Amino acid sequence: MTRTIVLFHVNRWLTLVYAVLIIILYLSPSGTPAVSVLSWSNCAVVVCVYYTLELLLFALWAAFSATRVHVLSGGSLFLSFPVALLSFVPACINAVRSNHRDITEMGYKAHCSL
Q: Where are the transmembrane segments (predicted)?
């Protein structure tokens, strides 16, 4: 397997898991989040996994963009390196921002009922 195939499959599966977590967090028949029936600690784990997957997807999309530019430019690092740097900016900003968040700021209160 090449790196491109691995990137493709990791992107597929992480996006699927992310979509399932969105369904768990936001959709339920009663209009309240489905995780409200979970205990506080289980709900906190689900929300932490959600934010972690979000960061992983940003990083994965950045790697995919850099790989795409590298291939289309005929292997030029002069073009693919700046694309990689600029594409990783959203992942880095969200990682720093989520690192400084408090439990109540990360959305636990919005998704988890006590």
A: 6-27, 39-64, 76-96
Cα-Cα-Cα-Cα dihedral of 100, 47, 60, 97, to 10°?
-10
CA angle 92, 95, 96 (to 5 degrees): 90
CB 72 within 8 A of CB 82: no
Q: Which tokens hold the place of 19?
A: 């979509």
Question: For the chain, what's the residue count?
Answer: 114
How many whole angstroms separate alpha carbon 75 and alpha carbon 67?
Answer: 9
Domain ranges of the chain: 3-111
Q: Is 29 helix (H, G, I), strand (E, B) or coil?
A: coil
Q: What is the pTM of this model?
A: 0.73
Whether residue 60 contacts residue 16, with contact meaning beta carbons closer than 8 Å, is answered with: no
1-39: pLDDT as tens digits: 788 888 889 889 999 988 888 777 776 555 555 555 555
Question: How far apart, in whole angstroms, are the C-alpha atoms of residue 12 and residue 23?
Answer: 17
